[in-house]
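Subgroup meeting minutes
Present: P.N., E.W., G.H.
Scribe: E.W.

1. P.N. recapped why we're keeping a running log of single-chain structure predictions: easier to compare across weeks, and new members can see raw inputs and outputs side by side.
2. G.H. added today's entry (541 aa).
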Amino acid sequence: MSSPEGGKSLRRDAGIIGLLFASTTSMIGSGWLFGALHAAKIAGPLSLWSWIIGAVVIMIIALCFAELAALFPRSGALVHMSHASHGDGLGRVWGWMLFLSYVAVPAVEAESIVTYASNLKGLHGLVDNQGVLSVSGFIACAGLIGILAVLNLLAIRWLLRINTTVTWWKIAIPLLTGIVMVVAGIHQIGPMWQHAGSSVWSVASKSYTAQDMFIALPAAGIVFSYLGFRTAIDLGGESANPGRNIPLAVIGSVVLSGVVYILLQYGFLMSVKPQDVVNGWDHLSFPGVKGPFAGIAAMLGFTWLATLLYVDAAISPAGTGLIYTTAGSRILFANGEMHAGPHWLTRLNGQDVPWVSVAIMWAVGVIFLLPFPAWQKMVAYISDITALTYGLGPIVLLILRKDQPSLSRPFRLWGASVIAPLAFIFCNLIILWSGFGTVTPLFLIVLSIFAIYLIYFYLIARQPSEAFGWGNIWWLGVWFAGMWIISYLGGKDLGGIGVLGFWTAVIVTGVWSLIVIELAKRCSLPAEETAKIMMNIEKTM
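Output recorded in log:
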């Protein structure tokens, strides 16, 4: 694949293990360190099912991207997908939305490291009692993001070798922690099973329902914890055998991470002491709660495990932040390559790394610390913006199946006509379940970025009005507006005004999703134009 700048190209040094571990390390980051605690506070013992459902939901979405990834084996592939289905207009908008979803991740991983470190002697001032960064905490996070950016200037083969080593650690420590917690919980008969004689789902007279279980998906960071599967897609252009390696890496990473997360949540529920939940799981508190697993390990007398966890609290988030900096810079690279942004985004250094894009990832990541100065605050934003960008995959898959039926597909998804619409519905449900208080800022940010890009497109790039491709993208505004209205009318437990009950809102969201799919199909490019785009992509591979 060639670059517009100087004719240089990205190296194809990423093998199956490198891609698998790139996606896995994108998943197993700060989510496992904090997700179990927040999920338990929201859904109590039902939080175990939240992780199981989360794995199923993400797997359904990932299966759509597995087929698409093999068709677009290029770095920043998600940007190229949108161009193929709806032309340059959607490609431009989606490319920058993808950037917004990636750029915040290194920042949230840095926040995780600093929050865990604040439990250590002499570092308490990094965050306050609510986990919000202080000035010194902000400076520490900015420095950590900078280190991740510098490491990203290495050649991709060295970067993935570092990541592979880190990922072995990142898989081993959570598995060890989960096993130790389960054994300890069985020994003390954890509070999850204290009320098995009456209701397993009731603690301190509070019953937990399926609604709590679904609300926990975005609110507790469960969706966030599973989001990294598409990193293998973003690095597809740097793989020698993308048709085989990318689908295996995408599916394998979801399975591997799901096993780890479910074990961890079960261990957490089993190992918490009964007296810590006497007032209900939503009031769960214990010494060292800002570093949940390390705090429990110390409380149970496993000081050696607590020490390992404090070490891992730096390694796991750093590994995830490292690989997201890599993937985000490739999204910027693709934006420059597809003329959705300035050409200098494609400039490569001596190691064939897009160094300008890496620098932008650092600068904007630091800026994101200002409106989201705490882990859970930024996780809610990342979950929603990423779910929004995920929604394009199932739509592109359906359009390519309809318009390009004879296209050679290295990986072909069975039952795509059912799985793809279901995946799109799940993307919208994630947004719904995050609550109106998160949905409104989400769409305001998207609208603001869109307005800024229009200023660039018309006033700086001086493009004619018809060049934007409005006729192919108007359905986006209808989709977003509909989701905002449904969220506004939703139940009060989701921050809405209560016109729609929880399950009514779910049904309405499902119906609305199917309507949006039909609108998107009607706005897609003619089949012959899509065929030309696919041919051009194949020529430049």
